[in-house]
User: Fold these one by one.
Assistant:
Number 1:
Amino acid sequence: MRIDVVTIFPEYLEPLNVSLVGKARARGLLDVRVHDLRRWTYDRHHTVDDTPYGGGPGMVMKPEPWGEALDEILGTATSPAGTTPAAGTTPAPMLVVPTPGGRPFDQELAVELSGAPWLVFTPARYEGIDRRVIDEYADRLDVREVSIGDYVLAGGEAPVLVMVEAVARLLPGVLGNAESHQDDSFAAGPMSHLLEGPVYTKPPQWRDRGIPEVLLSGHHGRIARWRRDQALARTAANRPDLIARCDPSSLDAHDRAE
Ligand code: 6GU
């Protein structure tokens, strides 16, 4: 997968050199290119923002640098949403626009993005990017405006780090064990919409605390049942909204499986 990020703070994306994403890049599974938006400014102050039409507080990112940056990065690779480029041509990139006004980012969207061959992220500062830029590229590409949660950040760079990490760990070969994200919180399957319960490792005694006995029992049925109960309790406590989305029949099936 190729990922381009256009930002006025390229150094903010340094964590993409570290850990899981850094290793995926080093192994050639991920081709990440970070671009400084100011490369596409030509005035002495490398201006990227201006005052909003209609008045109001804050500044808006000017359309020209974004347009030039995206034209250069995308080249001729454009294809309207819902179409596929002919064999042998450049794959259609997906444009991901981080904004608190976007659709909520969740595991389902992470899975969808992980299936794209090429993602282009446009993290903005200030009050956002001149709307005409999003409209311009939405005519030619699959454009997604995405928010990572119900709070306001100073810019889209941290959300890009979040989204790239969520997507990268889904790519084939990135995780050590091909199954290791199968039972994630939020993954599809019988435990979907349940949060993961507590986990334990050695030593068997730490301070005055031991390990729940069922985990030492070797009884896989009882262990699975206990984990499901723990997951359900944690979900009820922290995310009661998710309980409603649980498939009750899958829970009953799990119960009977013991
Ligand atoms: Cl994607 N951007 C900003 N600036 N704030 C956010 C966000 C994005 N998602 C949640 N808050």
Number 2:
Amino acid sequence: MAKTPSSNLGTSIGGNMEDCIFCKIIKGDIPCTKIYESENFFAFLDISPVSEGHTLLIPKQHCTNLLDVPEHLGTELLEVGQKIGRAILQATGADGFNFILNNGKAAGQAVFHAHFHIVPRKMGDGLVDWHHGTKVEDSELAGVREKILEKLL
Ligand code: AMP
Ligand code: ZN
């Protein structure tokens, strides 16, 4: 399947392996608080946690963002994400967690090695509920759907 180029998503920091901070963490050149490692994945605590237990899950292979992550890692990504998510829920007593990837500079990506944030959440914790927008008409949704389906080959 043709891949969408990811080069326009913003790669100002760590755009290649040599100066990628997360590749350096994987290699052990920069310290981190590691919580998981397998052949293909690595997870460590975020240095500026949004909540206790905030973890970053990354592919060991340098991938700039989600569009560069090899498809064959998908099943393992889900397995590891679930495994860490369950452990974090139990360890922190959280009520839930966000599993988030900021894809591209415009989406808030600051480190250009693809990473999933696992952010433990408590009921009423007051963290920003970014995903509740404004209700729109069905006709507007239909127009958006058409645009996406044209590209969804
Ligand atoms: P994003 O904005 O999605 O690119 O998130 C980057 C995340 O990486 C932020 O939450 C940072 O706190 C985190 N981060 C940056 N440098 C380090 C580091 N050396 N160790 C752990 N987390 C880091
Ligand atoms: Zn990297």
